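Q: What does the assembly look like in three dimensions?
Context provided by user:
Components: three
Sequences:
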Amino acid sequence: MTSKELLKVNNLKVYYRSPAGKVKAVDGVSFTLGENEVLGIVGESGCGKSTLATAILKLIRPPCYVEDGEVIFNGKNLLKLEGEDLRRIRWKELSYIPQGSMNSLNPVMKIGDQIVDAMMAHTEISKEEAKEKARKLLESVGLPSETINMYPHELSGGMKQRVIIAIATALEPKLIVADEFTTALDVLVQRKVIEFLEERRASIGASMINITHDIAVQAVLVHKLAVMYAGKIVELSDVYTIFEEPLHPYTKGLIMATPVLGEKKVIKGIPGNPPNLLNPPPGCRFYPRCTIAEDKCKHKSPPLMKVEEDRYVACWKYGGE
Amino acid sequence: MLHAGNMEGNDLTEKFLLEAEHLTKEFKARGGEYFKAVNDITFRIPKEKPTVISLVGESGSGKTTTGLMVLGLLKPTSGTVKYEGKDVFKMSKREFSEFRKNVQAIFQDPYEVYNPFYKADRILKVTIKKFKLASSESEAKKLIVESLKDVNLTPEEALNKYPHQLSGGQRQRLMIARALLTRPRLIVADEPVSMVDASLRADILNTMLHLKKEYNISYLFITHDLSIAEYFSDRIIVMYRGVNVENGDINEVLSNPLHPYVKTLIESIPIPDPKRKWTEKIKFNIEDLNKREVSSKGCIFYSRCPVATKICLTKRPELVKVGKDHFVACHLYSK
Amino acid sequence: MIPIFFLGFVGPYIFPVKGIRLASYPSDLPPSPEHLLGTDTSGRDLFTVLLYSVRQSLLIGLIAGTVGTVIGVTLGFTAGYKGGIVDDIIRNVTDIFLIIPTWPLLVILSAYLKSLTIPALATLLAAFSWPGTARGMRSQVLSLKERGFIRLARISGESDLEIIFKEILPNMLSYVGVMFGLSMTGAMLSEVGLEIIGLGPAESNTLGLMIYWAIYYNALVKRMWWWIAPPVICLVAIFVGIQLLNAGLDRLYNPRLRK
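A: Here is the predicted structure of the complete assembly.
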């Protein structure tokens, strides 16, 4: 399945300057994303996935900075864009649903006004057109038209999240980056919101990067899955393959640690803790917790290697020098 | 009638460790109206066998409030909580102290539960002191080290540290260690692993299960996660907006869920297996307005139920027995 | 911060009293090694005057601050922790006091009571500073009350009283410190204000009084900067000192910052 390449991240390194030294939050991440494709980035707290998201969108602030790497979006290196050029891309081609975004709605503005404002700020559109569009947008995520005149506090969590989806997709961007967009929602609402988001995304043909620690949500939503650990991608492949035959011991561990309703499986955790990213060990970062580790793993960190077409692992067990 | 919605309560002579009977808690909402966070909840924890009962529900279901009442931290508006037959809120000081000793708790947010002003292990020392578990400081230290071992924590990593110096998993384990100190017979665990990373969750749950066997501890396990509930419990009580909609033996209920809410819930849980993706859109009325419309007469799930009928609007369904240990409150199954 | 306190308290005990008396020295002298800050129109050695003034002003601030904070903390705490009727009563009383316009009332009272003594002034100032503290305390307690560690403390067997003192209070120390600092500086500022318009106590020397006399005797016109500058600088230094002290203490109170 070859689709036109939309986004290419090359060896991205994003560090934090701290009094104790450099924290290597994202340490050499590379991947590609095609058009109309959904990539999931899964990992636990501290693995760097949120930092990765903000870096791609050029939203990082000091003490966080990009040490190396490039983010090529539609042929342009996003990291090198400034001011007006960047603004033109934001919202229209790239949009972001940050963590806890439902709480970022302006509490003293009506929903309708917020959508209209956003649209008018980024496009040449008249107020009437914007209003009409807002109405249609809300409809597309299953919200009644009364919502336009309501205030955020009158809406439930699920409704607010759908408003966010509406705003983020208002200008029909080519890429949506969503960070834990269903985490605070109840199970029933979560399912509805996922359905709406997927429907909306598919209807505008956008690609999406879905970031969450919940591998179950990833399983139902994405086409490709990247597993992140301690600032690096340790496995990247299409979602069916990863679940059916996980290669990296961490991926295996994650899957084994998740209970599945209806299956009487025993769940096991991964002993130990993720490494300190201030001074990561020279070898594989998963080494201390790995059950199949060898001596080589202690000294050399495996790069993300291609195992098959569209299948990558960062583990010495699968070859490489 | 007395036993509608409970375990095989035919045997009245069986004494229970803890009985929650018709627990109700009302709160005053901002608009001045009262709403029932917990509405007539009844369950019993047996004395003989260590049992895990899960209170499963989403936010607003009243499960945490129920837990607080069971712990004696919150006084019910009506209904009783009885420990070994005695009403917890009417106990003498000594009886209450016994109660506290035997009914302990683990809470959700592993950071919030530590007083940031003190070192994390202080709370263990306080517990030992308050319940007179040790007669000297060295004995207390021994007790603490033993407890730490039970939860797979080393003294080096856990003691003498401030809460912010410990990881989430370590703080949670420390909390369990504290709960173990008094050798309780019941631990109320309110979302003990929700805020812990997936890879650490399993170990903490397994530790808790191990402790159940080792020390004969029963659990009242409060969670929103059905999969974890299935893994961990013997019985399940599903709550929706304060009402017990279905309860029973965990296998019976989950293999044959009857209440529309429970069915919808199960269908909405994403499975970590892309081959079992959702194939069609779920049918239910997603709550559209943030109104606490709890119709006091009809079924609590009416506004979202895909199969609601007229009677559901006017009459509240009672819990009826539908299996060996399986009870449902839904007009579809009422006699 | 420490130097200011040092100066204020220790100073007057080191230096002799005699310089205060009027016309002890020739008047209007600029600073010299003999008179570090020169003399004023009444012939007083200004350096000595300054020392005494600092002490008095600090005293006013401390008394007013302490009394005000103690009342405020107690009431605010009780209101927050007990809730219910107690809370309502205290809150209403607090609100009443808050609504009363402090400044005009002070002016009226001072003008009416011909002779306002220092202790009286301090008490008066305290009476106006406690509501702010009470309010702040109450909201702090309310927010802390629901925190997880309170529940855990109850589960571990701590009594209500122990919870108040051992759990809640330590977390509020930095807040209390700030409130105290504010009360104190507020009181001192009010005193200065009153003095400047001539309504403050004149029985002993305060920084405010110094400024008053300086203005009265047209120190600025006479280019006697050594009269008016020192008290102002001292006041500023005291205020800044208190804030810094609080910031420093905050490190002590908050273990997270200690590392």
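Follow-up: Chain A has ten helices and twelve strands.
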